[in-house]
């Protein structure tokens, strides 16, 4: 059997449209069949609809602590983006491989799968686990079911490597996130009678200003961590929608906002601060005119931060395998926080590609990054074979 290259496997994975709102089962079935060719059994943890699945597979002795290689199968949409080539057909140009998910993060999955024949051929002293998830892009929610299964079965690996794009650099931390949808309900009326209504847009604007105030406070008074490019926690409003016409006082306005918080700080306390402001200051003013008015703040997505100690054995190992002594932390979220929180497993982020290329039109990964990841996984296989 001819061993496929990581680039060949990446081309196969890119061909599956696994945008988060779609099923990932076609890709998962493809991966399961590939693993079966090499005698590797896999298990699925389905979502409630039966249309999405996490995949778990183990190569080597399952009764010993080993390493998890973790990656998500879902991607962000291509709608509204101007691509120079088909986003679902891997296209090579000038040392770059273009396609949706090539960087984030099917490149890592391809390298992991390309390493399977070598791993199977070895007499591993430690197991190598594959954990492929769904719905990472919408809040790191899909992997939760898989982690619950592993926790219930008492599986405690020695470390987890999440292959998010880090240019093969060692990342030991990321911020927590709370994504909020705010719904402001007022009372509509003709704009000539504006004082008789409750302008939902006006009150939503007050919440936006409050988010700005919190952001300013976090920037000047909050905690600091110099390992991050943005060294403090942040607050941000991304969208606001309200009103139908200039001469109508709007009775409804919605906005989406978020907190990205250093792991040592309390993200839920910031959410509560916004809720307290809405309940204690804004709603009383609204309800003096319209008792039915009110504000709802829903946390629709969240994930924990990651904070792996720089002197942890897992960090030392990954540094040795990459040949780098440095480490950093990133503002974007990963499933790493979930692995650390739910399983208590030391977790490091290290994968091919640059995060700057993720989610963009003409997303790409450098061919050299796949080569670097292939070499990294080869050295990881050496470690798993020696068992020390």
TrEMBL record:
- Classification via InterPro entries: AcOrn-deacetyl, ArgE/DapE_CS, Bact_exopeptidase_dim_dom, Peptidase_M20, Peptidase_M20_dimer, Peptidase_M20A
Q: Where is the Peptidase M20 dimerisation domain?
A: 172-284
List the keywords (alphabetical).
Amino-acid biosynthesis, Arginine biosynthesis, Cobalt, Cytoplasm, Hydrolase, Metal-binding, Zinc
Query: What cofactor does this one take?
Result: Zn(2+)
GO:BP terms for this protein?
L-arginine biosynthetic process
Cite the EC number: 3.5.1.16
One annotated GO molecular function is: metal ion binding
Pfam families of this UniProt entry? Answer: M20_dimer (PF07687), Peptidase_M20 (PF01546)
Whether ATP-binding counts among this entry's keywords is no
Q: Which CDD domains match?
A: M20_ArgE
Q: Does the keyword Amino-acid biosynthesis apply?
A: yes
Organism domain of life:
Bacteria
Main enzyme class: hydrolase
Q: Which family does it belong to?
A: Belongs to the peptidase M20A family. ArgE subfamily.
Entry protein name: Acetylornithine deacetylase
The record's gene field reads argE
